[in-house]
Amino acid sequence: MIKLYQFPISHFCEKVRWALAYKKLSYKMCNLLPGPHAKKAMSLAKTSEVPILQHDKNVIQCSSNIIDYLDATFPNNKLTPINEMQQLECAEWEKFADKEIGQSVQIFFYHTLLKHPDILIPIFAYQGPWYGKWLMKIVFPTLTKKMRGIMRINEKSAERAKLKLKNAIDKINNRLLDHSYLVGNSFSRADLAVASLLAPLVQADKYGMPWPSPLPEPLQATVDGWQADLLWVKKMYAEYR
């Protein structure tokens, strides 16, 4: 039995959800509440970070490590190329996605969403324990302060994150001018990583939770302005998710 401990809103968790779906693997989704999740996460792994995948006696943390494990354990629909040079290219794109996209999306989105508990609390509690909304209302002020402090979320960091995202999108589109995929001639973990971490910007239907519509401003105006540059992300979701 595969269990995935995760947050529905997390794009790093979406990366693993997509990998599991692509490999057509059955699994149990265990949705945790941000903040209170730490106790459960620390009982399973070394840190409180999600996603955490549990399979038999194996516990794997970090989305890239989980894909490594899934490819090694369930080689059907492999996401890692056989070619060693392409493996290195995939690793570089994943590092790029983590550093330039993953953290930037978190900072840019949460800077606005944390101001809207009426929107964010139902997302945090989505398909979680029955007491989720009640508990999140209690811990939300403390959680907001901790998230802003730990993740360094503020007006300036949100503007920097927005710029980093635009630069990352431009780099991806430059690569795709004469390529259909980021690495080689077929879908790989590089495409999955980049597309999943950009998915909040297109509010992908198959993401794993319903997105609020519209997003609070200035998020909605920004993502609206980027849609023409995110067609490849939508294509990857339509064809491979």
Automatic annotation (TrEMBL):
Kindly state one GO CC term assigned in the UniProt record.
cytoplasm
Q: Which InterPro entries match?
A: Glutathione-S-Trfase_C-like, Glutathione-S-Trfase_C_sf, Glutathione_S-Trfase_N, GST_C, GST_Omega/HSP26, Thioredoxin-like_sf
Q: Which CDD domains match?
A: GST_N_family (cd00570)
Tell me the ranges covered by the GST N-terminal domain, including all copies: 1-78
User: Which residue stretches, if any, does this entry annotate as coiled coil?
Assistant: none
Q: Which residues form the GST C-terminal domain?
A: 83-241
Note the PANTHER family from the entry. GLUTATHIONE S-TRANSFERASE OMEGA (PTHR43968:SF6), PTHR43968
| Name of the protein | Glutathione S-transferase
Q: Which organism is it from?
A: hydrothermal vent metagenome
Lineage, top ranks: unclassified sequences, metagenomes, ecological metagenomes
